[in-house]
Design goal:
This protein is mostly helical. It folds into two domains: about 45 residues, no CATH class; about 210 residues, MetI-like fold (Orthogonal Bundle), CATH 1.10.3720. The chain has 14 helices and no strands.
Length: about 270
């Protein structure tokens, strides 16, 4: 069996070719967009970047800052929902109701297979009620985004739960007289910090990049603001698109760093 597995595994050269091809697929459009933002009619310069960030161009900057502020608020509320609702529920199911784990996993992974347009059709009547009850602020999208990020947050947190002996840690803390809030906050959360951090950062990246739900529910977020700005200044839209992608890429780097640091601390 080992010989068969070794023969099936791609060679180093094959992996390198695949890596280069995939890298080009992502790099070519990004580099092309960057070069487009540097065009000034006669060559390449930072004129467009300087003009976009000039405070005098308030008609360009105002929609961007409004959308970015709304998206950041949405990210905070969505992460709060993940940490306050999803994480404790997963801990409870793994400890008390292990037979429900498969069903719960199926339910939380289901949104990844449902198109955003279908989610909006189902959520539209709910948002009519939400609008009458608490208003139509952009932050209300966090309820929809909380559903959208469930699959990504679940996988991150579940990986950390599987990496520790959840039952033993809980029983040891309870035997020493710790209350359930203390068990979760002082014992389990520190051991699950990598998964919780990854879930938070991935949720933030998903919220900052989401367009369909916000557009169909008529909410102003970063991505819808970029569409508005693109009709005013295409260079500004391209510049802020690159910046948002760079921010999301930075979040992924932070996740990788946090995971490596945590692994290093756990090793004797």
């Amino acid at each position: 069996m080992a010989v068969v597995s070794a023969s099936i595994a791609p060679s180093r050269a094959t992996r390198t070719v695949i890596g280069v091809v995939v890298g080009l697929v992502f790099a070519v459009p990004l580099v092309s967009t960057l070069l487009y933002t540097l065009r000034d009619g006669t060559g390449y310069s930072l004129v467009n970047w300087a003009r976009v960030f000039d405070p005098a161009n308030s008609r360009i900057l105002t929609p961007i800052w409004t959308g970015l502020a709304n998206s950041l608020v949405l990210a905070v509320v969505t992460v709060g929902l993940v940490l306050v609702l999803l994480a404790p529920t997963m801990i409870l199911i793994n400890l008390r109701f292990p037979k429900l784990r498969r069903l719960f996993e199926f339910l939380v992974l289901l949104p990844i297979s449902i198109p955003a347009i279908v989610l909006v059709v189902g959520l539209a009547p709910i948002y009519l009620v939400i609008g009458r009850s608490v208003g139509t602020g952009a932050w209300t999208l966090a309820f929809a985004y909380g559903i959208t990020v469930l699959p990504f947050a679940f996988r991150s947190i579940q990986a950390s739960i599987d990496a520790i002996d959840l039952a033993t840690l809980t029983e040891a803390a309870r035997s020493l007289g710790a209350s359930w809030p203390s068990v979760i906050g002082l014992v389990l959360v520190p051991n699950l910090r990598t998964g919780l951090l990854a879930a938070s950062l991935i949720s933030t990246a998903v919220v900052l990049g989401e367009f369909t739900i916000a557009s169909l529910l008529n909410r102003a977020v970063l991505q819808t603001s970029l569409l508005v700005v693109s009709k005013i200044d295409t260079y500004a839209s391209a510049i802020f698109t690159l910046l948002s992608l760079a921010f999301a890429f930075g979040l992924l780097i932070i996740i990788g760093r946090a995971g490596r640091l945590n692994t290093g601390k756990d090793q004797p």
